[in-house]
Design a protein that fits this description.
With 394 residues, this protein is of the alpha/beta class. 55% of the residues lie in helices and 11% in strands. The strands form 2 sheets. Strands 1-9-6-4-2-3 form a 6-stranded parallel sheet, sandwiched between helices. A hairpin with a 4-residue loop joins β7 and β8.
Length: 394
């Protein structure tokens, strides 16, 4: 009965989505164009959100020198960590208010962009805590100008209406979902990512693959989200390993794939892979892309025949049509994911990382995240989540 109620809820949300504006960010390919954007938006004081590593690089200094040369004043919050927390957002908010900033520039990966989005939400809703804005359509007020400059090739946060942050008090991930969180501009400049370490290319690239596959397999697709997801999947299979090995052209292709996957899942949602990965990141501070990469094949195998038809379509798009059965095509795609992970030096499991005393809490939180929101191919109950978690921990 519960699963039927969940499906009805998902159908209602799907129908409601056609009445919500999913206006994509304006994509810009040259970082220098940010000056024109700021001038046209009448921005003279901005807040830059970044992290300690990126803010110490020569590329970041060149970016801030560009702002200084045009007399654009900026304040910096650079204490963002993976899985950004509510206290970090409050620290950034204090800096934003103290310096009377007018807009926000996120220069970094998914954690940086998510923190910047949550910061924007706190700016326009000063009397609402992050916990009170958790969920869908809890902000409903236009954010200050938000520009995303992604420094990775996977999170897709520059194209989504979601921000996921950690609550260290409850060891939970808080997901804020509202169209107002969509950045106004996404700057996809290859120079920003060209020095990305191979490990980050691998993990964020697998993050993008997870976004695209979960979006495509879900039951809330539109014609556009299916097209974007399939395109991203094909690009990633063709270019992620090359980008990992140092091919700059393929790295640029991965920027496009990450963006397309972001466009796909911001409307079609993610699924049970993310429901588990978010909890493990909150409990054990795992990189989100790494967690997704490890979990993805296990969840796909657990779905069994419920995904054969769509997985076969992925097979045909990526590898070309063949005489294989739907089931064999589905298995071949999963095996291709596992092979790609091996080539990228990503672990096949968590090898006992998950503590026995944490398991039931992780199961409960994953169940609550996934249900009733995620329109997954197969709704997981508590036992399903427990089964998968036990498998990925071996």
């Amino acid at each position: 009965m519960k699963k039927l109620i969940f499906r009805i809820y998902q159908k209602i949300m799907y129908l409601m989505s056609f009445f919500i504006s999913f206006k994509e960010p304006v994509v810009v390919n040259d970082l220098k164009d940010i000056i024109k954007i700021l001038e046209n938006s009448h921005q003279s004081k901005v807040m830059i959100v970044s992290d300690q590593y990126l803010s110490g690089t020569a590329k970041f200094k060149a970016f801030t020198d560009l702002l200084k040369a045009e007399s654009i004043h900026y304040s910096l919050y650079n204490d963002t960590l993976p899985n950004p927390s509510i206290p970090m957002i409050e620290e950034a908010l204090s800096i934003y208010k103290e310096n009377q900033c007018q807009g926000i520039i996120a220069y970094g990966g998914g954690s940086v962009i998510d923190l910047a989005k949550a910061l924007g939400a706190r700016v326009v809703r000063p009397n609402k805590s992050i916990e009170n804005m958790r969920g869908t359509l809890k902000i409903l007020k236009k954010l200050p100008l938000l520009i995303a400059i992604p420094s990775t090739v996977g999170t897709g946060s520059e194209a989504t209406l979601a921000a996921v942050v950690s609550n260290p008090r409850t060891k939970e991930k808080c997901a804020l979902m509202d169209p107002v969180l969509m950045p106004k501009y996404a700057i996809l400049d290859l120079s920003v990512v060209e020095s990305l370490p191979p490990k980050l290319i691998a993990e964020t690239g697998m993050d993008a693959l997870t976004h695209a596959i979960e979006a495509y397999l879900g039951k809330a697709n539109t014609r556009k989200t299916k097209k974007m997801a399939l395109s991203a999947i094909k690009i990633i299979f063709n270019h992620l390993e090359k980008a990992y090995s140092g091919n700059i052209d393929s790295l640029g292709k991965m920027q496009v794939a990450a963006y397309q996957a972001g466009v796909a899942f911001t409307r079609a949602y993610v699924g049970n892979v993310h429901a588990i990965a978010h909890q493990l990141s909150a409990y054990y501070h795992l990189g989100h892309g790494y967690a997704n990469a490890v979990i993805l094949p296990y969840v796909l195998r657990y779905y069994h025949h419920s995904i054969d038809r769509k997985m076969a379509k992925i097979y045909d798009d990526v590898f070309g049509d063949s005489d294989l059965s739907l089931q064999d095509k589905s298995i071949s795609v999963i095996e291709a994911i596992e092979s790609l992970k091996d080539k990228l030096m990503i672990d096949s499991s968590f090898k006992g990382l998950i503590k026995e005393g944490d398991v039931l809490g992780i199961v409960e939180k994953a169940y609550k995240e996934a249900n009733p929101l995620y329109p997954v191919p197969k709704i997981f109950d508590h036992q399903d989540f427990l089964n998968v978690i036990q498998m990925i921990n071996q």
